Every structure is written in structure tokens, then in C-alpha cells.
Amino acid sequence: MISIQQLSKTYTSKEGTVVGVDDVSLSINQGEVFGIVGYSGAGKSTLLRCLNILERPTNGKVTIDGIDLMSLSSKELRKARQSIGMIFQGFHLTMAKTVVENVGFALKAAGVGRVERKQRAEELLELVGLSDKANQYPAQLSGGQKQRVSIARALANNPKVLLCDEATSALDPNTTQSILHLLKKINKELGLTIVLITHEMEVVKEICDRCAVMEQGRVVEEGDTYDIFANPQNELTERFIKTVIDFTIPEALLKKTQGTIVLLKFTGELAGEAIVSDLLQEHRIRGNILHGKIDYIQEKPLGTFVMELKGDEQEVNRALASLGATLGEVEVIENDRSTDYTMARAE
Amino acid sequence: MIDQLITLWPELSKSFIDTLIMVGIGLVVSFVVGLPLGLLLFVTDRDLFLENKWVKSITGVIVNLVRSVPFIILLVFLFPFTDLLLGTTTGPVAASVSLSVAAIPFYARIVESSARDIDRGVIEAAISCGASPWLIIKDIIFPEIKSGLISGLTITAISLVGYSAMAGTIGGGGIGDLAIRYGYYRYDNFVMFTTVILLIVMVQVIQYVGDFTAKSVKKS
Ligand SMILES: Nc1ncnc2c1ncn2[C@@H]1O[C@H](COP(=O)(O)OP(=O)(O)OP(=O)(O)O)[C@@H](O)[C@H]1O
Ligand SMILES: [Mg+2]
């Protein structure tokens, strides 16, 4: 649906050049919710703004639905933008227009006549659950309501793609949830492809099918959201995931432990509790769960357990090896032997 | 005192009307020409949707040139042009030529600066909707700056009252001219005070009407 090839954007000024996006290639499929995460200044907004040429890339190519956006004349580009909706962190509504007029503006831009405009704008407000606010001004609305208006405006011309620049960053957790639900709903019902940037991994976990992690203008990791969470490759990605799945054991507690501390991840169909109880029965060791949590990502469970294993050294090692065989990976966080049981299965 | 007022009346009312003509024409022209000029200055600015370095700098330079010439000099400088345009350099209509020339860039800068106060994001959102430049100007920028435009007209009108006094003294007529002729050349304090009071009242009325209108168009 969206193909980004070797895209770069540099800003040149008297003070020198700043790299916004550095040689990014991505492809985003029809109907998926694609997340882009990264810290402030990573180039997320710049990349997103290149997707509707709000920012003209310095190099590379952007194709949406088979149309090479950079080759279009300004009139053709305006037409293309009508099928690429965009919403922003700051909503960007016109304060001097009512809610229904704000939505109607997008339709006006597409040349829709007055009567049809009114009807369509009302339909859209219905879709985002704001029918009763049609004749109010944005100043009279809450943040979440404003974002709903801007979603209605972005959807006005039946776009194929919706770009979201930190759409929930200005909202409280509850409102964030409701906006994310709305986005998921329109993704499902309208088959809309959504590209969403955020610095909150929670948002990615909530609704993204796939995601990319950016740092200094580059994509450092990309993949299926579940895989990224289950098996992050990059150190930055790991840090992001820790903001959602935090299994750091307090230092004081660690000091009190004597055994081997292991981190176990149960992915997909593996049922964590059963494996742990089997383990304790089959080996002559004692186990103590320090942390245990199951997160649902893309409706698939991801269990994260931190355990302290106590007993005879050899017996513990054997237990670890068999765990490694079932799980594929067991990370030993702390012991004096520091053996790596990763890929024990391969033996 | 009543007697004095009665004798002065014909001249006073004529001067008043002359001032109104000068301010009125100046105001209309500055609006009609200054508004598009101000918008042009805005939309051709860096990072805006009609960014154009050349248009921006040339317009900017012309506007600054006119604004940097002291009005009294501009007035004399424009005499030949006024003569060419109207065949005369005296009377309120002739005076309003230079008043307009001075007021256009003044108002254009006011328009530009109130447009700058618009949140860039709002304009960006309009661009991302695929709106044409004209639609953005008409439907986004204009409504957002409407009350600023009216406040700007108020400021321009008040400046025009002041400038019209200067223009009046070299052939334009009007209240300023009356004050100078009687108050300055003949030491007639009565006329002096009457005209000053009249000017104060005029400025107050403009300010009041301007503020009221600006407030009433400001929705949200
Ligand atoms: N118009 C611009 N002119 C110059 N440099 C810019 C411009 N826009 C962005 N940059 C630079 O490009 C880099 C990426 O900025 P960008 O806004 O894309 O970051 P971001 O990931 O969206 O950050 P945030 O989470 O804070 O929004 C930054 O170093 C920024 O300073
Ligand atoms: Mg950003």
C-alpha cells in the first residue's frame, strides 16, 4: 500500500545541515496499523510528513496505492492528499469554525457541494460519536472530542490511508484508550491503512500490527509487533519494551536471593504455569517466582516470568537446559556461573 | 461662545466633512489594496504554501521603502503623481492620494502580522486535506484574522486622522488645516480648542466602533 524507498530528508540552514530522516525504506501493507516509535527528535514526524509531501523528501521515493507522490504536479498532489487523511497531536482545528464546518472544510477542498457536504459531515460526526456537538466551536470541546473532530475531518473524503502524528500524546490515559479504540474501529470497518507515530510503546502494543523503531533518522528495527515484543534485537527497542513490560527486580530483593535468577519468556501457545510446574516436578530444585505477568499483544499472550531457581548446581543446570529446549531462550540474569543457555534446543 | 460657534459652524462642518473624505478614502483604499498585499507577504513567506523568495523580498522592500519616508515628504513627493491622476493637488480628494499610499503598506504589515499569529498547524492541516491555496486563504486564514483585520482598520483610521491634519495644511483642507489656520496663524484659541475636542471625539468614536466590531466578529 505504502512503499518508502531510501527516503532521506535533510534541512539546510545557515547553521549547517540537520538530518531529519536518513535512508529509510519501509513497506506498509493494505489494511494494517503500522506504528513508528522513537524518542523525541528521532525523525518520526519528518518521516510521516514525507508521506503526504507536507515535507518534500530530499531523496528517495514514496509510493501510495501505486502513485509516486513526488512526481505529481501541485494540483495532482492536492487530489492525492484527499485520499491521505492526517491527524495531529495538537488537533489543528479552525477555531473560527464550528465542528461541522471544520469537517465540512475537507469536503469543500474536494469540491463537494453544500447540501452533500452537510449530510456527509453529519454522518462522519455520527461515526466518531459527536453528533450532539455539531454546532459548537472547538474551544468548547475537550481534547478527546477535538481529536474526534479532527479524525472526522481526516476521514471526510474516504481516504485509503490515515497518518497519525502523536494523535494521543496530548490526552489522558482514558481518553487515549477511547481514541485508540476509535482508530481500531475505523481500521476494521473501513479497511483503512493507518500509520501511527508515538513515543509510547503502550500505544503500539494496543493497536499496531507491525512497527518500526527509529533513532537518529534511521529505522533500527522493524517487524511484527508481537515478535518485536517477544524478541527485541536492538538495545533501543528493548528499552522501549521495558516501558510496558517491566521486569526489573528491586535491588534489595535481589540481594536476598541465593539461587540463579532467570528470565523466561513464554510466547504464543506455550502456557507458562504448566511449564513451570512440570519443571519443578521433574527436577529436584525449588523455584520462586519473583515476577510474573502475561501481556496480550495482538490478542496473543506473551508471558514474562522472573524466577529464582535453588538447589544442587548440576540439577539447576539440567533444569535450565531443558527449559532452553522448550522455550528456545532462557536468559540468566544473575548467577556466578553465567552460562548462556540460549539455543540449547539446537543440540 | 455660542455666537463664536455659530460663525465658525459653516467652516467647521466643511472641514469635518473634508477630514471624513480623506480618512474614508484612505481607509477604503488601504483595505482594498493593503489586505491582498498583506496576505501576499504572508503566504509567500518561508515554509508557507506559496513560498516565493522573490515575490516576498520585492514586495517587502517596496512596503518598507514607502513606510520609511516621513509622511510630509511623501506628500510633497507624490504631488506630481496626484496631479497626473486628478489634475489637481488641492482638496481632500487630492490629499487622499498620498494618504492612501502611506496607509497601504501600514495596513499590509498589520494584515501580515495578524496572519502570522495563526497556528501554522491549522494551515498545515488544511494543506493535508488537499485544499487549494485560494481556499486556504478564503476559508482558513481570513476567518481566523477577521477580528485582527478590523482592529487593524481601527489603528489605520486613527493614524489617518493624524496624517490628514498634515495633508490638510498643504492644500487638503480638513480639521487639521482649520486648527493651523486659526489656532497657529491667528492665535484663535477658541477654534483651536474646538478642533482639538472634535479630533479627540472622532478618535474615541473610531476606537469604540472598531473595538466593538472586532469583538462581535470574534466567535468561538
Ligand atoms: N523544519 C525543520 N528545520 C530544521 N530541522 C528540522 C525541521 N523539522 C525537524 N527538524 C529536525 O529533524 C529532526 C527530526 O525531527 P522530528 O520532528 O521528525 O522528530 P520527532 O521524532 O517527530 O520528535 P518528537 O517526538 O519530538 O515529535 C530533529 O533533529 C529536528 O531538529
Ligand atoms: Mg514529532
From TrEMBL, chain A:
InterPro entries cross-referenced by the UniProt entry: AAA+_ATPase, ABC_transporter-like_ATP-bd, ABC_transporter-like_CS, ACT-like_dom_sf, MetN_ABC, MetN_ABC_transporter-like, NIL_domain, P-loop_NTPase
Domain ABC transporter: 2-241
CDD domains registered for this protein in UniProt: ABC_MetN_methionine_transporter
SUPFAM superfamilies (UniProt xref): ACT-like, P-loop containing nucleoside triphosphate hydrolases
Pfam families in alphabetical order: ABC_tran (PF00005), NIL (PF09383)
SMART domains membership: AAA, NIL
GO MF annotations in UniProt: ATP binding
Keyword list, A-Z: Amino-acid transport, ATP-binding, Cell membrane, Membrane, Nucleotide-binding, Translocase, Transport
Top-level taxon in the UniProt lineage: Bacteria
Name under which the protein is recorded: Methionine import ATP-binding protein MetN 1
UniProtKB/TrEMBL annotation, chain B:
Recorded superkingdom: Bacteria
Cell compartments where the protein resides: Cell membrane
Membrane topology reported for the UniProt record: Multi-pass membrane protein
Database matches in CDD domains: TM_PBP2
Cross-referenced InterPro entries: AA_ABC_Transporter_Permease, MetI-like, MetI-like_sf
Predominant cellular place of this UniProt entry's protein: membrane
Bilayer-spanning residue ranges: 20-42, 54-79, 85-108, 148-170, 190-210
UniProt entry keywords in alphabetical sequence: Cell membrane, Membrane, Transmembrane, Transmembrane helix, Transport
Domain (ABC transmembrane type-1) ranges: 16-210
Family assignment from sequence similarity: Belongs to the binding-protein-dependent transport system permease family.
Name of this protein: ABC transporter permease
Taxonomic source organism: Pontibacillus salipaludis
Recorded name of the encoding gene: sfbC
